[in-house]
Target: shikimate dehydrogenase (NADP(+))
Amino acid sequence: MITGSTRLFGIVADPIAQVRTPEVLNAYFDKQGLDAVLVPLHIGAAQLAVAFDVFRALKNLGGFIVTVPHKTAAVDLCDEVSAAAREIGAVNTVRREPDGRLVGDMFDGRGFVAGLKAEGLDPAGRRALLVGAGGAAAAIAFALAEVGVGRLTIANRTRARAEELASRVSRFYPAIQVEAGDADPTSHDLIVNSTSLGMKTGDAMPFDTELLQPEQIVAEIIMKPEMTAMLRQATLRGCVVQAGRHMLDHQARLMGEFMTRVS
Ligand code: ATR
Model:
């Protein structure tokens, strides 16, 4: 039950009706036995800065999730941002400190990696191929590097974006071998599709699935459909597959922990 002492959390988005975060995070709060509630907050881009000021003033606000289209703008609106989120150029979770300061971090890619680890598929030391170089790819690339992936190849339709992302990751994690390359899964242990290919029926494959070998780990972040044509092909070829929904629970836990952490 919501009472006067319930801590308030939010998700900021535009549009808002499609967000699933309230269901997922309120279930997390229940599981943790926290007196907290997360509500949808529909805010357009033009009012985002005003909203952040209100959030600073709102003493019973614990934090909020930031999603489309505000993740990039949120970086400069927070009072403090983790070095990784600043480098990725996006914030998806903000904690409000007791003094009102807003502290942002990024968990999109970390949720994905935590989902892999929970299945015993730790990317540490493995040779990974990341297909795609957009916002989702950037979060995953940094999260893979953060846990010590052995070698990372980034392939993208627009090669320049892959090169740019590869150089950003290797600047931030100089010890990790990162390069732009072809979408050829041969001699990789882990292959990740972070493009939007697979969301629509009839989409092309993000890479040549005929080249997949048994035991390779093939993962992606597409939620709908739950099993893409690419993952079905990978399954037929004996690969270990990880569908997009796996990262959801892990991401919710990481975001919940970050927002409710008392510093
Ligand atoms: P998101 O933030 O969800 O990652 P994005 O930044 O628009 O979205 O990135 C979409 C990714 O899917 C990009 O890597 C994009 O490739 P380009 O950089 O060449 O645009 C990739 N993508 C989308 N449609 C594609 C298609 N038809 N073929 C190949 N790659 C595609």
